[in-house]
Write a structure and sequence with these properties.
This protein is of the alpha/beta class and 278 residues long. The chain has a domain of 193 residues: Alpha-Beta Complex (2-enoyl-CoA Hydratase, Chain A, domain 1), CATH 3.90.226. α4 links the parallel β3 and β4. The longest helix has 26 residues. It is elongated.
């Protein structure tokens, strides 16, 4: 006689998001690909890192990175999660194609960084993007009424130009993000802060020059990163990709609709709300 179906069990099977079982004693390969956005996507990545950290089956981790960066706060959140993971077990960052801005910041949480020979590395800097459209609005006959309390509330609104005080505040925020980024690089790479400031110009380098600058430890691909992580953990050099598992129904919806919607949402978020970008 089959066991009775519990209320809500079908819903949970269709919509729940349990962690995928990790392969025992293999190096877990966690992919960080594409722009780094805030909200649910970065929270899901942090949750995956927590599962990897707490799993006794995973002796070491390789971060497979190919990302231009993105939200400053989300990137720093990933850095903290990766740093916490690296304190528990060996973590090696492998820059596959692009490890720039926020994704390079995330890589700093690992114990070692390797990069493909033609990988692009660096872009240590901060940019704040905010379109201003008062001339366009005036041309099409649109006016915006603004009622606020607090002289800096509404700073960066696209329907008017910033005041001098608002521009100064904006620059102070950007400078604060920049100083924090420089501090992360200096600490993570063991470099003098003044040396980091010299290279923190927002420019990028190929992997060979990044090694010479001290931003990367060695040239290598993901397989080399697996070998390094396995050696640090004292296990065979075998790696397996891991991710949070989505049930069938969620994957089906994602395939036909959510990927497109998410890509649009990410672009809008990066260009509007996530003004401060690494």
């Amino acid at each position: 006689m089959s066991a009775p179906v519990q209320p809500g069990s079908t819903f949970r099977r269709l919509f729940a998001w349990p962690p995928r079982p990790f392969p025992a004693r293999q190096v877990a390969i966690v992919r960080l690909h594409g722009p780094i956005a805030g909200g649910g996507r970065s929270a899901e990545f942090v949750e995956l890192l927590r599962h990897v950290r707490e799993s006794s089956k995973v002796p070491a981790v390789v971060l497979d990175i190919d990302s231009p960066g993105g939200s400053a706060t989300a990137s720093d959140d990933l850095f903290l999660a990766i740093q916490r993971l690296a304190k528990a077990k060996p973590v090696v960052a492998a820059i596959r194609g692009v490890g720039a801005s926020g994704s390079y910041l995330a890589a700093l949480g690992a114990r070692r960084i390797v990069a493909n020979p033609t990988a692009v590395v660096g872009s240590i800097g901060v940019i704040s993007v905010s379109p201003h459209l008062p001339a366009l609005l005036e041309r099409i006959g649109v006016s915006v009424a603004e009622t606020r309390a607090g002289r800096l509330k509404g700073m960066g609104s696209p329907w008017r130009e910033d005041t001098d005080e608002e521009r100064a505040k904006e620059q102070a925020l950007v400078d604060g993000f920049y100083e924090a980024f420089v501090d992360r690089v200096a600490e993570g790479r063991g470099l003098p802060r003044e040396r980091v400031v010299e290279v923190a110009t927002g420019e990028v380098w190929l992997a060979k020059q990044a090694v010479e600058l001290g931003l990367v430890d060695e040239i290598g691909d993901v397989e080399r990163a697996v070998e390094v992580a396995a050696e640090m953990a004292g296990v065979p050099a075998r790696g397996a990709p891991v991710r949070l598992r989505r049930p069938f129904f969620a994957r089906l919806v994602d395939r036909f609709a959510m990927r497109f919607a998410a890509s649009i949402a990410d672009e809008v978020e990066l260009r509007t709300w996530n003004r401060y970008r690494f």
